[in-house]
Design a protein that fits this description.
Length: about 350
C-alpha cells in the first residue's frame, strides 16, 4: 500500500476548535469535562465532554424540517465546520471517506445520507459515487482511512477527504450505557466519560502531492483493520487479540518496514477492555516499538469521541509530527465496542 500525504486537518471537540488548539490543549493537560444537563435514571448529572452550542453549524430549513433524530442533528452540526474547513480548497466534487457510529441494522437510515446533508450544509460538492460511509463505531474513521488509501493507490493523482464524527449526547444511548454500568460516575469505576467531536483531513495520492513547496510532509504509511469475535458484546472468549491481529495486517501492508514506533496515539476511552487489547498487541509486537515510546491517550481530556476518535487521533498525530512536539513514526489505533479494530502509522517525509 503506497504512502499518502496528509494535507490540512481540522478537529472540533470540547478542548478546542482547530487541530492546533486541540493538540496544544491536550499536550498541556487542559481538560474540559463537566457535569451535563443529562442525568442518570437516579437523577445524577452525567459528566461529559461537550462542544459549545455556538461552535456547531446551524441546520438550514431544508434539513431542519426532515424527521431526523436529535443525535443525527448534532452529528451534522459537529461535522459541517470541520469538513468545510479542509474541503473548501480540494478539487470538487471531492470523494469523502467518513466514519460514523454503528446504530444497528434498521435504526439509522439517515446515516447513508450524511454526505448529502454535508454538501447542503457546506456548499462543498461531494463525489457521492466514490464516497464511502463506514458506520462501525470507534474504529470507523481508521477503517475509512484504510478504504481511502486503497482508493488513492488506484487513483494516485486524486485528493480525498477522510473524517469521523460522533456524539454521545443522546438520552436513549446514555440510558442504555447507564444500564450497562459503563458511564464513569458514582459506583462505576470501570467506565468512560461520554464526549463528542469531529475531525477531517485531506489525503492526497503520491502524484497529487508532487510539486508542493519544500517542507516536511506528514504521510500515512499504512492502515489496517480486522474483526475481533471476542468483542464486548460477543459470545466468543474475549482474548484481546483483535488489535494485535490488526497490527499484523498493518505491518504486512506497508511498502517499507517501519522504524520503531516513537509515539502511540491510543484509542483508550477509560475502560479496562481497551487496555487489555493494547496490552496483548504491545506484547506480541514488542519489536515494533521503541523502548522510549511515548503514549498519548487524549480521551481523558475530552471524553470518548466515539466514531470521531480515529480521525481526531490522526489529526493530532500529524500536528505533533509536523510541529516537532512528538517524534515519529506514530501509531494510531482505535477499537469499537463490537468487532472492528483498526490502526495506522504516520510519519514525516523529509523533503
Amino acid at each position: 500500500m503506497g504512502d499518502a500525504v496528509i494535507g490540512p486537518t481540522h478537529v472540533l471537540c470540547s478542548i478546542g476548535r482547530g487541530t492546533d488548539q486541540v493538540w496544544s490543549s491536550a499536550r498541556t493537560g487542559i481538560a474540559r469535562i463537566a457535569n451535563s444537563d443529562m442525568t442518570t435514571r437516579r437523577l445524577e448529572a452525567i459528566p461529559m465532554g461537550l462542544v459549545p452550542e455556538e461552535a456547531l453549524a446551524k441546520l438550514p430549513p431544508d434539513i431542519d424540517k426532515l424527521p431526523l433524530p436529535p443525535r443525527a442533528r448534532r452529528i451534522l452540526g459537529l461535522a459541517a465546520p470541520s469538513f468545510q474547513a479542509v474541503a473548501k480548497d480540494v478539487p470538487q466534487p471531492v470523494p469523502l471517506f467518513l466514519g460514523l457510529p454503528e446504530l444497528g441494522r434498521d435504526a439509522a437510515p439517515w446515516l447513508i445520507h450524511v454526505p448529502e446533508y454535508l454538501q447542503t450544509l457546506t456548499g462543498v460538492r461531494i463525489d457521492d459515487p466514490r464516497s464511502v460511509v463506514v458506520a462501525r463505531g470507534r474504529a470507523a474513521a481508521l477503517m475509512a482511512l484504510e478504504r481511502a488509501l486503497a482508493f488513492l493507490q488506484a487513483e494516485p493523482s486524486m485528493a480525498v477527504v477522510v473524517g469521523g464524527v460522533d456524539t454521545y449526547l443522546d438520552l436513549p444511548l446514555l440510558d442504555a450505557l447507564g444500564d450497562e454500568q459503563r458511564i464513569l460516575g458514582a459506583g462505576v469505576m470501570d467506565g468512560f466519560i461520554p464526549g463528542e467531536g469531529a475531525a477531517f483531513y485531506v489525503l492526497s495520492g503520491a502524484s497529487a502531492s508532487k510539486g508542493q513547496p519544500d517542507r516536511n510532509q506528514v504521510i500515512v504509511n499504512g492502515a489496517a483493520s480486522t474483526m475481533d469475535p471476542g468483542h464486548r458484546y460477543g459470545t466468543a472468549p474475549a482474548l484481546g487479540e483483535g488489535l494485535a491481529a490488526a497490527l499484523d495486517r498493518l505491518r504486512q501492508s506497508m511498502d517499507h518496514p517501519s522504524a520503531p514506533i516513537a509515539t502511540t496515539f491510543a484509542g483508550f476511552n477509560g475502560e479496562s477492555f481497551e487496555a487489555k487489547l493494547w496490552g496483548v498487541a504491545r506484547l506480541r509486537h514488542n519489536d515494533f516499538f521503541s523502548p522510549a515510546m511515548v503514549i498519548e491517550h487524549p480521551a481523558d481530556k475530552f471524553g470518548d469521541a466515539g466514531a470521531a476518535m480515529g480521525a481526531i487521533l490522526i489529526a493530532m498525530a500529524a500536528q505533533s509530527l509536523v510541529g516537532g512536539t512528538r517524534s515519529g513514526p506514530a501509531l494510531v489505533w482505535a477499537a469499537s465496542d463490537r468487532e472492528p479494530r483498526a490502526c495506522a502509522v504516520v510519519s514525516v517525509l523529509k523533503q
